[in-house]
From TrEMBL:
InterPro entries: ADH-like_C, ADH-like_N, ER, GroES-like_sf, NAD(P)-bd_dom_sf. Gene3D superfamilies: Medium-chain alcohol dehydrogenases, catalytic domain, NAD(P)-binding Rossmann-like Domain. This is Zinc-dependent alcohol dehydrogenase family protein. It comes from Aquiflexum gelatinilyticum. The keyword NADP applies. PANTHER family: QUINONE OXIDOREDUCTASE PIG3, QUINONE OXIDOREDUCTASE PIG3-RELATED. Residues 10-320 form the Enoyl reductase (ER) domain.
Amino acid sequence: MKQVIFHQTGFPSEVLQLEEAPMPQPKPHEVRIKVTARNINPSDIMFVRGMYGITPKLPSSAGFEAAGVVDASDESNSIPVGTRVIFTAIGTWKEYVCIPAALVIPTPQGMTDEVACQAFVNPLTAFGMIETSGLKEGDWLLITAGASAFGKLAIQMAHQKGIKVACTVRRDDQKELLQSIGADLVINTEKEKLQKVIAEQTGEGVSVVFDAVGGVLGAKAIASLRTGGKMMVFGLLSLENIPLNSGLLIFKNLKVEGFWLTTYMESLSPEERKTVFKTVFTYLLSNKVKVDVQDSFPLVQFKEALEAYEKGGRNGKVLLVSK
């Protein structure tokens, strides 16, 4: 089988390579999955660079999230051959992957592989952050990098709950798109002063910030919080830490906390996890929440896929697919 792997950490374009490998054989409690679609997430890039919360055991494949079809079942046949599935694993940029049957989620009927392969990380992160944020109907939420895949999902889910959403972009042509899916206020930080616009439009500031950027924009987002507000940090797209204003935190009684999907899912009981999956998948199947695809490439064209991923102005995910 073919797999995309790296023998040392670094920029994906420099360290990832296509190799042939033996067909993996599942253990008794595992299923083997023919992977049909994978999406490229920022966490995939950070992992290859050695900058993610999970340290790669080299050599390693890239990718955490995918969809496929079971081609070898576990010993109890709990997931029959031919079942379409959604799964996460360390290293999904392969033609075949073996993982424990207990970790596989059957793909809901009517959900395409293009949607299924991105139905886990971003939708569950957006749902989990909204659920744990304490936001109520009528509260203001600020999302940095609003045009990202996560941003668009969080906008739509928050809008469903009557939460007012402000978000940041860097291009004017993204404003109309985000407003059409539920954003109440879209701020181009290349042209507008974030704190000034937030103060004028919300009065006291926003109740919660979801920050994926960090750096100077993260600091400006914190300054846009109302007294008693909270920032939830879940990404670092700028690769720069947030410069914190201690006085602002003290006198406005602000909180800054991290959010990682892995930790959130581990905190849930099995029944709670089932409810979360059902709710998120229902959103996606009903089109109340939509995900976008910018382009698809065969696995062997991963270099071209990475180039497309890095291009500015994307409004959808870049996928690696297998026939």
